[in-house]
From TrEMBL:
InterPro entries xrefs: AcTrfase_PglD-like, PglD_N, Trans_hexapeptide_repeat, Trimer_LpxA-like_sf
Residues at the site labelled Increases basicity of active site His: 146
Organism per entry: Rufibacter hautae
Family classification: Belongs to the transferase hexapeptide repeat family.
The keyword Transferase appears for this protein: yes
Keywords tagged on the record: Transferase
Residue ranges of domain PglD N-terminal in the record: 7-88
Protein name: Acetyltransferase
Gene Ontology MF terms: transferase activity
Binding site for substrate: 76
Length: 219
């Protein structure tokens, strides 16, 4: 049976953009779904193609589309990702949830994913998990029961979020960091690689180490 593929563009022509390209290709191997049209990035590409797909223009050019187009925002920096999403205003642009085929997503888990969420290979989400808009879960993240991640969070590979954790908007979790059960992290806080969060953290700070300690406050 032939499946009509949906057109999709990737915003971000860097390393994460190439990883999202691989994610889309792996989804297509399981269920042919996406027609990948190319990349958009505010920094012009040094080459006309990225992994065989064309560089098509800047972020704002996406608003000029005359036909429906899906968009994957492949940007890890939370503030930059927020800015890009705020600029994409055309009603013809849609932001699908992208989930790697290795990730179990069954109705009985009662998980909820906001538009534009990207969940990469080998992630595990248990039950009653809520992910906001444009959340990125990179490779092999684990998200425990009843956790809530706000809009524009980005978790790098192997971040462990325990049960009942609350992450505000735009929280960045460095590779292999851990947030322990019931802890809260404020908006746009950065958790360093390998850090263990065993106390609540306020908004707009950077915390590193075991246990995580604040080294910088930005607001």
């Amino acid at each position: 049976m032939n499946t009509v593929k949906q057109r999709i563009a990737i915003v971000g022509a860097g390393g994460l953009g190439r990883e999202v390209l691989m994610l889309l290709l792996q989804i297509n191997q399981a269920t042919p779904k996406w027609e990948i049209v190319g990349f958009y990035d505010d920094a012009p590409s040094a080459h006309p193609t990225i992994c065989g797909y064309p560089y098509l223009g800047t972020v704002d050019h996406l608003n000029d589309t005359e036909t429906p187009l899906c968009v994957a925002i492949a940007i890890g920096n939370c503030a930059a990702k927020t800015d890009v999403a705020d600029r994409l205003l055309s009603p013809l642009l849609k932001f699908p949830v992208l989930v790697h085929p290795s990730v179990l997503c069954n109705p009985e888990q009662k998980n909820h994913f906001g538009e534009g969420t990207i969940i990469c290979q080998n992630c595990i989400l248990t039950n009653n998990v809520t992910l906001g808009r444009h959340v990125l879960l990179n490779l092999a993240c684990t998200i425990g029961h009843d956790a809530v991640l706000g809009d524009f969070c980005s978790l790098m590979p192997q971040v462990a979020v325990s049960g009942c954790v609350r992450l505000g908007a735009g929280v960045y979790g460095g590779t292999n960091s851990t947030i322990l059960q019931n802890k809260k992290v404020g908006d746009f806080t950065i958790i360093g690689a390998g850090a263990v969060v065993n106390e609540d953290l306020p908004s707009y700070c950077t915390a590193v180490g075991v246990p995580a300690r604040i080294i910088k406050q930005t607001a």
